[in-house]
Design brief:
By secondary structure, the protein is α/β, with parallel strands linked by helices. The chain contains nine helices and eight strands. The protein binds pyridoxal-5'-phosphate (PLP).
């Protein structure tokens, strides 16, 4: 995609996000967009950089490695949004600015160990399973309080909020229920004294519903970068 189409898509997405905020009675400044560059190469990321974007969501560590190498020297923050295998912790600790898909203790342990070696701290969001599909990843919501408790042993992981993927459904009420559930869980964490302001929820197909339910960040791939030639999941 050329830079002018990318610029037009980006402006359109930002405008639609702002519209969704206003429709929900929210200030557009409260909601950020995380561009999801998965499956798109370094040239596309470079075009996005020229538009002033600098933070990108990726779901495969191998892709972050390749793009980070090709774009060495650029000020880019790579955000991991996909299921993470524990054996990728070393690369994540070296390359990622943030992980939004923290979903189990074993992964937290591995990340903390590697971050400690690197002398780094990163922001993390806990991915919670709000959808009923077997294939959806995430911590079971009843495990959240205990998980938060145990994460206190890993100070290199700064827990900033929650992330989810809604159910894939034609019924907007079912999708919306996932987002509402995540907000309720976050509100409960905050009431219990956790500093967890962020809610990463909503993608190209469902972000207005997520914004209506309180998303502070929407993760947008195809609406910005175009259709992926392979699904990238
Ligand atoms: C791919 C992906 C997105 C973006 O999806 P689009 O429908 O292209 O906007 C958001 N979140 C996660 C976790 C993803 O894997």
């Amino acid at each position: 995609m050329d830079t002018s189409s990318l610029a037009a898509n980006w402006a359109d997405v930002r405008r639609r996000v702002d519209d969704a905020c206003r429709a929900a009675g929210r200030d557009p400044a409260e909601v950020s967009v995380l561009p999801v560059s998965k499956t798109f190469g370094p040239d596309v990321v470079r075009s996005a950089l020229s538009l002033g974007l600098h933070r990108f969501g990726e779901n495969k560590v191998q892709e972050i490695r390749e793009k980070a190498a090709a774009l060495a020297g650029e000020a880019i923050e790579w955000v991991v949004i996909g299921h993470l295998q524990t054996n990728k912790a070393k690369d994540v600790a070296r390359l990622a600015s943030e992980v939004q898909s923290l979903d189990r203790l074993e992964l937290a342990e591995a990340l903390h160990h590697r971050l400690d070696i690197e002398g780094r701290q990163i922001d993390v969001l806990i991915q919670v399973k709000t959808a009923s599909e077997e294939t959806k990843q995430g911590l079971a919501e009843e495990d959240l309080p205990g998980f938060l408790e145990r994460l206190q042993a890993f100070p290199s992981l700064r827990v900033r909020g929650l992330m989810t993927l809604a159910t894939l459904s034609d019924d907007p009420e079912e999708v919306r229920a996932c987002f509402r559930r995540l907000r309720e869980l976050r509100d409960r964490c905050v009431a219990e004294g956790h500093d967890m302001p962020r809610l990463s929820m909503g993608m190209s197909g469902d972000f207005p519903l997520a914004i209506a339910e309180g998303a502070t960040e929407v993760r947008i791939g195809s609406a910005i970068f175009g259709r992926r030639s392979y699904p990238g999941v």
